[in-house]
Design brief:
GO molecular function: ATP binding; sequence-specific DNA binding
Number of helices: 24
InterPro entries: AAA+_ATPase, AAA_lid_NorR, Homeodomain-like_sf, HTH_Fis, NO_sig/Golgi_transp_ligand-bd, P-loop_NTPase, Sigma_54_int, Sigma_54_int_dom_ATP-bd_1
Number of strands: 18
Strand content: 5-15%
Pfam families: AAA_lid_14, HTH_8, Sigma54_activat, V4R, XylR_N
Distance between the termini: 56 Å
Oligomer: single chain
CATH architecture of one domain: 3-Layer(aba) Sandwich
Organism: Alteromonas lipolytica
Protein name: Sigma-54-dependent Fis family transcriptional regulator
Helix content: 40-55%
Length: 569
């Protein structure tokens, strides 16, 4: 009895020491549950029991076991990543003990480490764990009764995944006692995979996809259903949202025609990518695609760049050279930031578009060019016409076929699709194998406003791929130096208190009238000072996280940051 009490106290110490309860949060507004940065599902045990039963009904026993082990293994890896984040300079064994506590949080089991032999330097490991209240053992007993075989496949999968990720070595657990066999409790033993003399058992843990026979069956079923894989990457353009699809459909209609196209949209939406797609899907695809950023070239040199120059036309013109129009002959000329074009260049551009003829600077010779113009701007050209900064006749010449490229905040459904494509591209560049984004990272990415649009997203994802551990997930702190505050004022976030009850994050204990009466009886009561102390207490309780501290007080993060910064000044 004393030993049990001591064990319970040690486990409670782990929970308190690492403040594990605060890592489990419920957001009623978004319908999401979080454990650290990973999204959880609160699923009925009965539903999991049904899934488990059907796996054994529909698949052979080995494949069903393999799938259950894999489910547990991945969950264990996720929790090991959270444990590492909580580690700091803590004792490694104490950090390792976080795993059983997290598994209990998630409602799977109550685990007690009864024996552990660990050598951190050599990677030597032996562990023995007593498992109580296993949902999987209950499922087996309810559906099939007593068995000759152990049944806690997700449990050993979790222990193996957690320990393997924690030690960076392939560790495998095996169930030696199980309630399904009539044992008093379940017991699992773990050691490195190469220390088990049972290769067939180890094979169950390897990350192997479905067997060839099952893949063949799935292929046949897909063909019978006429099923096609959805392709979100249309030769460089990635997306599936209605806003993206609308813009793409307009480009498709114009692709094979000679019509000039005007791409409209904010900075960073990918106008040049759309322009290249248009060129590559036109009858001019085997001819040059020449891109010019009108805002990046000094005005005094812009005409020479566009139309060419004759030797000696101005100081520094050491030789004659063709302009971008001549170089794009037969193909497509893309003029980006058209709104920055000076009026003098606008006149010459209009003439070229009207006549199909170009004259180099300082030269009288007329040269015929056959160029399709695709222009782009983030400037309101009609307003620029009113202000005398853009010629109306040029506008009507180039705006025959405008296509609006939506900003990323208006096509949020494409954000994760774009992220996956970018992760694949940058993973190849940095020679990494990554498992994608953490749940918290996905939430922030899809909620963020993206003022820099796709270009900003691309930079963020490249940073994440660079900083993420090979074989792991891209976490929120890999993506941003200072993660943006995307919490909504409507978010109703709850946490688990020390009694195991879920309560609103910003709830405070009920204060009776006596407390307030005593507070007001103080001489020279200073309301501002008490408010400031309350703000500081919230920041301390939230361990410096201003977003969480603001939720304690029911104010915005900006309001809290202002009060905290005001005190420091």
């Amino acid at each position: 009895m004393i030993a049990d009490q001591q064990l319970a106290q040690e486990e409670k110490d782990v929970v308190d020491r690492f403040d594990l309860l605060s890592k489990l949060r419920f957001n009623q507004e978004t319908g999401k549950i979080w454990l650290g940065e990973s999204r959880l599902l609160l699923l009925h045990a009965k539903a999991m029991m049904e899934i488990r039963t059907r796996l054994f009904d529909y698949l052979d026993a080995e494949t069903a076991k393999r799938m259950l082990i894999r489910i547990g293994f991945v969950a264990g890896e996720q929790d090991a990543d959270l444990a590492h984040k909580l580690a700091d300079n803590e004792n490694s064994y104490d950090v390792f003990r976080i795993g059983p506590e997290l598994h209990a949080f998630e409602g799977h089991v109550r685990s007690h480490i009864t024996e552990a032999e660990i050598d951190w330097e050599t990677g030597r490991f032996f562990g023995e764990v007593i498992v109580e209240n296993s949902w999987e053992a209950e499922a087996q007993l309810q559906s099939l009764g007593l068995s000759d075989e152990a049944a806690c496949w997700t449990i050993i999968g979790y222990a193996s995944g957690y320990t393997s990720r924690f030690f960076r070595r392939f560790i495998v657990f095996k169930e030696t006692e199980c309630m399904c066999k009539g044992d008093h409790h379940c017991k699992i033993i773990g050691k490195p995979a190469d220390c088990w003399d049972d290769e067939n058992y180890i094979e169950l843990f390897r990350d192997d996809p479905l067997s060839p026979s099952l893949r063949e069956i799935e292929k046949e079923l897909s063909q019978l259903r006429g099923k096609r894989q959805v392709k979100y990457d249309t030769d460089g353009l990635v997306g599936a949202s209605p806003e993206f699809t609308s813009a793409l459909n307009l480009l498709k209609r114009a692709a094979d025609s000679p019509i000039n196209v005007l791409l409209l949209g904010e900075t960073g939406v990918g106008k040049e990518v759309f322009a290249r797609w248009l060129h590559e899907h036109s009858s001019r695809s085997d001819k040059p695609f020449i891109a010019v950023n009108c805002g990046a070239i000094p005005h005094e040199l812009l005409e020479a760049e566009l139309f060419g120059v004759k030797k000696g036309a101005y100081t520094g013109a050491q030789e004659s050279r063709p302009g971008r129009f001549e170089r794009a002959d037969g193909g497509t000329l893309f003029l980006d930031e058209l709104g920055d074009l000076p009026l003098s260049a606008q006149v010459k551009l209009l003439r070229v578009l009207q006549t199909g003829e170009v004259e180099r600077l300082g030269d009288d010779e007329v040269r015929k060019v056959n160029v399709r113009l695709v222009a782009a701007t983030n400037v309101d050209l009609q307003q620029a016409i009113k202000e005398g900064k853009f010629r109306a006749d040029l506008y009507y010449r180039i705006a025959t076929y405008p296509v609006n490229i939506p900003p990323l905040r208006e096509r949020r459904g494409d954000i994760l699709i774009l992220c996956n494509a970018m992760i694949d591209r940058f993973s190849a560049s940095y020679q990494k194998q990554l498992k994608g984004l953490s749940g918290q990272a996905m939430q922030v990415l899809t909620r963020y406003e993206w003022p820099g649009n796709v270009r900003e997203l691309e930079n963020v994802i490249e940073r994440g791929v660079l900083l993420a551990n090979d074989g792991g997930l891209i976490e929120l702190d890999h993506l941003f130096v200072n993660p943006p505050d995307v919490a909504s004022a409507e978010d109703r976030i709850s946490e688990v208190n020390e009694q195991g009850l879920v309560q609103p994050l910003n709830s405070l204990p009920e204060m009776n009238d006596f407390f307030y009466d005593k507070l007001l009886e103080q001489e020279q009561f200073d309301l501002a000072r008490h408010e400031q102390q309350l703000f500081e207490a919230a920041v301390r309780k939230a361990k410096g996280n201003l977003t969480h501290a603001a939720q304690f007080l029911g104010v915005t993060r900006r309001q809290l940051a202002y009060r905290v910064n005001e005190k420091s000044r």
